[in-house]
Amino acid sequence: MTVTSAVLAFALVAGLLTIVPGLDTALVLRSTVARSRAHGFAALAGIQLGTLVWGAAAAGGAAALLAASQTAYRVLTVAGAAYMVWLGASMIWSSFRRPRADAAETGVLPPAGSRWKDFGTGLGTNLMNPKVGVFYVAAIPQFVPDGVNPLAMGVLLALMHCVLGTAWLSAVVLGAGYLGPRLRRSDAVRWLDRVTGGVLVAFGARLAASARG
């Protein structure tokens, strides 16, 4: 296996996983529709930075240690589950607040806030999901050719994953950007917050259940 063939093979696997709707897509879609394309791209940047961190950790052996240590994995899993449940519950709660209802009636949303918040949400959700690290631990060793530095190859594969993820999520941002102004003048944003929040709560609950198992 050459470096080129390894990268192409990994790109096929990562590409299929990228286009499957999940937390990343839900967060980017929510930030774009509820706020703006700029907020959607901020969430996208946070997600991809988290991907790079996990890729480097897997290549450097940190994620392998996580996979080998049940205690470390459970601690991170419980922390990640708590974070996602809190984040999801916050979205649901905010969707019922009176300013949001008034905004739906007037057609004007409250101030969008800093894009750093969307960036931090994307980054935090990715970093607090141990399943991302476990994926890299399982996948990266399969695509490291003999004689190639594992750290360099791991970073290269993580970069490829970021390129694919950025391309896909950018398309989501651009597409959602056309619908955003119309949806912001209806109850759609509140329902989007509730659906996204519900997905996060459900995912967090599932993580917590897996930690107990």
From TrEMBL:
Which parts pass through the membrane?
46-68, 75-96, 151-179
Which keywords belong to this entry?
Answer: Cell membrane, Membrane, Transmembrane, Transmembrane helix
Q: Could you tell me the superkingdom of the organism this chain comes from? A: Bacteria
Question: What Pfam families does the annotation carry?
Answer: LysE
The subcellular location is: Cell membrane
* Topology term for the membrane: Multi-pass membrane protein
Q: Which PANTHER family match?
A: ARGININE EXPORTER PROTEIN ARGO, ARGININE EXPORTER PROTEIN ARGO-RELATED
What is this protein's record name? LysE family translocator
